[in-house]
Amino acid sequence: MSHIASRLSAVKPSASMAVSQAAKDLAATGIDVIDLGLGEPDFPAPAHITEAAFEAARKERMLYTASLGTPDLRKAIAGKLKRENDLDYAIDEIAVANGAKQIIFNALMATIEEGDEAILPAPYFVSYPEMVKLFGGVPVTPACPAENGFRLTPEVLEASITDKTRWLFLNMPGNPSGAVYSEAQLNALGAVLAKHPRIMVLSDEIYEHIIFDGRTFVSFGAACPELRDRTLIVNGMSKAYAMTGWRVGYAAGPRNLIKAMATIQSQSCTSVSAPAQIAATAALEGSQDDVAEFCTAFERRRNLVVEGIAKINALRLDPPEGAFYAYIGCAALIGATTPSGQTLVDDVAVTKYLLEEGHVAAVPGSAYGLSPFFRISTATSEEVLAEAVKRIGAAVGKLEN
């Protein structure tokens, strides 16, 4: 039997991927399942992006690229950061990797020592704590309840800091909550961080273009320029451009950190594939009309789900401010009895019931560090979402308290 490294003993597989697999397994038995477990836009990538990669691959040899990414792509990223976020970064302060997750993985590998702590405001993206633990770090997960808009407050941040704190992660708009921070709210967090010079900030901004109700996105880097030398801005192509399978993420940050991340990448995957980098360059430098159209569609879908869930008395959903998820409160369902006589003891049991009875796959809030909730992705058609909400309502209606 193969020996598996002990460092993996504390790391769990992705909960959203596990839910999606459970949905596929049930569907394989012939049951019509609506899988709302994964956050993946249902739109095709804009045509000019795929055409750019196709034409380049047809005409040129696709060779190794620099580990940090092609100069053309890093110039395009620098241009985007200046144009959209008012941030100035040179190309040697920019790294490209196989998705934003690999960016985060590389950054943590480059910085985390055994016992270092990372503050991950809950609810958090499922992979954050697992990556921290993989490198011997300790996730610190302060609760950021719905009453606070799922946002980290300065007081909670200050109370979470110890002499071992190495990172603060911010995700805005947030997965799973959709929470967005204003400039004033970021300034208040920055004032706390200014007193703790050892702490670095990872600002995951991959949903920045999916933002609702006329809000304006503010990058942490723009709100707190005084923390530039310890801020890593993380972004990527997957969500805004519907390019999940292309696997292109990027970061902008301090040169020494970017250089360390490049070393890791050079000794692991070498680089992102050349055609994918060409596609990403075309995305950033070409028309942004599709990005705006996608956002408009996501907002319509958000509205449909909010209105539908509001009619289910036992559930709670405050309108998400961005991203394409609904993080639905289900506290009133805990303790309820299913038609088969089972008691719903937690949100894991709730999602199991919704899959088995309603044939809707959702991810339990425990995967994101804040219960009792469940997350559904709204990155699918209005027709599918309407049917999913109908099924959820019917399943809830069969419970007895």
Short summary:
The protein is of the alpha/beta class. Helices cover 39% and strands 12% of the residues.
Helices and strands in order:
Layout lengths: L14 H13 L6 E2 L11 H13 L11 H15 L8 E4 L2 H12 L5 E3 L7 H8 L3 E3 L13 H7 L4 E7 L11 H11 L6 E5 L15 H4 L7 E6 L12 E4 L2 H12 L7 H12 L3 H22 L14 E5 L17 H12 L1 E2 L1 E2 L8 E5 L4 H16 L4
Parallel strand pairs: 1-10, 3-4, 3-5, 5-6, 6-7
Antiparallel strand pairs: 2-8, 7-8, 9-12, 11-12
Structural account:
This protein is an alpha/beta fold. It folds into 2 domains: 6-44 and 290-395, Aspartate Aminotransferase, domain 1 (Alpha-Beta Complex); 62-285, Aspartate Aminotransferase, domain 2 (3-Layer(aba) Sandwich). It is built from 13 helices and 12 strands. The chain has helices at 15-27, 47-59, 71-85, 100-111, 127-134, 154-160, 183-193, 220-223, 255-266, 274-285, 289-310, 347-358, 382-397; strands at residues 34-35, 94-97, 117-119, 138-140, 165-171, 200-204, 231-236, 249-252, 325-329, 360-361, 363-364, 373-377. The strands form 3 sheets. Strands 2-8-7-6-5-3-4 form a 7-stranded mixed sheet, with helices on both faces. Helix 2 (47-59) packs across helix 10, helix 4 crosses helix 9 (255-266) and helix 12 (347-358) packs across helix 13 (382-397). The longest helix is centred in the last third of the chain and has 22 residues, at 289-310. The termini are far apart. The relative contact order is 0.16.
